[in-house]
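agent> fetching stored inputs for the magnesium ion docking request
agent> found them:
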Amino acid sequence: MRPTAPRASAARTPTGRCMTLVPATDSNITRAANALRDGGLVAFPTETVYGLGADATNGEAVAAIFEAKNRPRFNPLIVHVGNLEAARKYARFSGMAEQLAQAFWPGALTLVLPKLPDCPIAELTTAGLDTVALRAPAHPVAQALLEAANVPVAAPSANRSGHVSPTLAAHVEADLGQRPVFILDGGPAPLGLESTVVDASQQSPILLRPGAITRAEIEAVTGISVGDAITGERPASPGQLASHYAPRASLRLDVTNPRDGEALLAFGPETPAHKGPCINLSGTGNLREAAARLFAALRELDASETQKIAVMPIPAEGLGEAINDRLKRAAAPRGD
Ligand code: TXA
Ligand code: MG
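agent> prediction call returned; pasting tokens
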């Protein structure tokens, strides 16, 4: 599956950014692994679709994934690991989860599991959830990359938000070529359909996203019937499940003058005078840094005694759209 034809292109785009598309030879896989460890983005083939990967423990690198995909929302991402042994460093496996991993890994099954207390995966990777989605891909290029990088790799499909998932390196280039992405060409993705996502954090498995591995195959292994993620009458989109992190304190948005007793979630170099808990998402006004800190900052301010968190205005461009989306949803009245 590793092409040997010497096809490489490196283009400097009009914005001055550099994209590289290379065949997935051993030496290019080593280069890609180094790029991942340095906080860069690498698109790589898996047996399902091409993924856009970053070091899952590096919040700013993960923020760059959302930026490159132009995703207006922070959905939790799948974390790719080499095998079950590596996965155990990040999540707690029940007997049922263990059975599923033994049966289908490496392969097209993603398991959503409780994060371990000392889990080093960045909060942005899991969108602040207490669970993490893990998958060991079977594709030899993905396996070689994960082994060489020796870090867990967060990777959604390598397309622009709203476009179909890429099954060829050329699709990735067409969608993300304007971005500083290192693309490993490993030929067509054999399955061409995303992995099945199963929530295995409870007693019985719940199908969050149908995919390459079927419900019947999962039931045959576990002997338990697979539930559906249904809220009310319509299926829940996994990123929107009730477990999605919402702060206890209420939020007040676009605040330039915080009131006494409020905690302050600040942004940028000019912050108002304020007594009480304050976290600045980025003192330099850098949206990537702000995205990387967002979920941890909300959690930290929430843990203080405060009932209200005042949030300074965050520009709506680029990653600011996803940051503002998350804040708006956290600020919305609850009751459900
Ligand atoms: O085949 C695939 O799964 C591809 C390749 C690259 O591995 N990846 C992929 O990732 O499709 P992505 O990010 O596009 O899809 C992740 C899915 C989303 O439906 C997301 O909501 C769900 O997994 N997910 C991730 N973490 C979750 C969590 N902690 N709880 C519930 N759902 C989660
Ligand atoms: Mg996708």
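agent> quick read of the result: The two ends are 49 Å apart (CA to CA).
agent> awaiting further instructions
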